Amino acid sequence: MTDMHTDKRLSELGRIVESQQDRLFRFAYMRVGNRPDAEDIVQDVFLRLFRSGERLSHVRSLGHYLLRCVDNGCRDYFRRRSCGLLPESAAGQEAEPEDRPMHEEYLRITALLSSIPEEQAEVVRLKCVDGLKFREIAALLGIPLATAKSRYRYGIGHIRDNMDI
């Protein structure tokens, strides 16, 4: 039997999952390139969120906090994979039929972003793919607002140059 406190936390987590899950999944998918790993990363974040209990009272923006957690989860994923603790990504494998449109979009975006410096690519991805505002990008990356804006401007400029637009 669960106590009222646990029931309340489960209910609150349910609302958070419902409001944030799609955004966080897209964020993770654009980084890892396959559905199972992206789903696992987001699920781990929600599990840690539930286990953290009342420790979220210090969080000013839950959305930013969760994006940061998913970003850290993606970094951990790549770190474990590079150390041989995970099998190579399924990104090179054929996508499931229901995932093909998202996977094709991932491949197009990845190709464009690979043509510019990583710092610029990260800001362009956060702005264009994840829909974050410059203020949110600066907070997430721990950089000044002006730096986020200039990285975006230079990144978009390089992409346009590469596309001959």
Describe this structure in words.
With 165 residues, this protein is mainly α. The protein has a domain at 1-92: Rna Polymerase Sigma Factor, Chain: A (Orthogonal Bundle). The protein has helices spanning 4-32, 35-52, 62-82, 100-113, 118-129, 134-141, 145-163. Helix 1 packs antiparallel against helix 2 (35-52), helix 3 (62-82) packs across helix 6 and helix 5 packs across helix 7. The longest helix has 29 residues, at 4-32. It is globular, with a radius of gyration of 18 Å.
Shape: globular
Enumerate how many helices there are, as a single number: 7
Measured by DSSP, the beta-strand proportion falls in under 5%
Looking at the overall shape, the CATH architecture of the domain at 1-92 is Orthogonal Bundle
User: What is the CATH topology classification name of the domain at 1-92?
Assistant: Rna Polymerase Sigma Factor, Chain: A
Q: What's the alpha carbon Rg, rounded to whole Å?
A: 18 Å
Instruction: Give the overall pLDDT as a whole number.
Output: 80
Helix percent reads over 70%
Main sheet specs: none
Give the CA-CA distance, first to last residue: 63 Å
* Element order: H for helix, E for strand: HHHHHHH
Assigned CATH class of the domain at 1-92: Mainly Alpha
Return residue spans where pLDDT drops below 50 for at least 5 consecutive residues: none
Number of strands: 0
Structural class by helix and strand composition:
mainly alpha
